[in-house]
UniProtKB/TrEMBL annotation:
Its EC number is 3.1.11.6. It comes from Sphingomonas prati. Pfam families: Exonuc_VII_S. GO terms for molecular function: exodeoxyribonuclease VII activity. This is Exodeoxyribonuclease 7 small subunit. InterPro entries: Exonuc_VII_S (IPR003761), Exonuc_VII_ssu_sf (IPR037004). It is found in: Cytoplasm. Heterooligomer composed of large and small subunits. The keyword Repressor does not apply. Gene3D superfamilies: Exonuclease VII, small subunit.
Length: 82
């Protein structure tokens, strides 16, 4: 499974999300055997964690524009989630 986890880290956010969607469809379809379902669930969990980490990283980099009293931009401040 370590090899699979390494390849998950190499996926772009969009590719990881597409793979996660495919796993969910496969599991919901009931076509997978029990062993395959367990493997897919593990891969899906790793993909979910990877996507969440990338989203948190992106959010941390977002900055908001700070406007002065005259309405003109005076600089930026870290995103505070509001």
């Amino acid at each position: 499974m370590a090899e699979q986890t390494d390849s998950i880290g190499d996926l772009s956010f969009e590719d990881a999300l597409k793979r996660l969607e495919a796993i969910v469809q496969r599991l919901e379809g009931g076509e997978a055997s029990l062993d395959e379902s367990i493997k897919l669930y593990g891969e899906g969990d790793a993909l979910k964690q990877q996507c969440e980490a990338r989203l948190q990283s992106a959010q941390a980099r977002i900055e908001r524009i700070v406007a002065g009293a005259d309405g003109k931009a005076t600089g930026t401040a870290p995103f505070d989630g509001d």
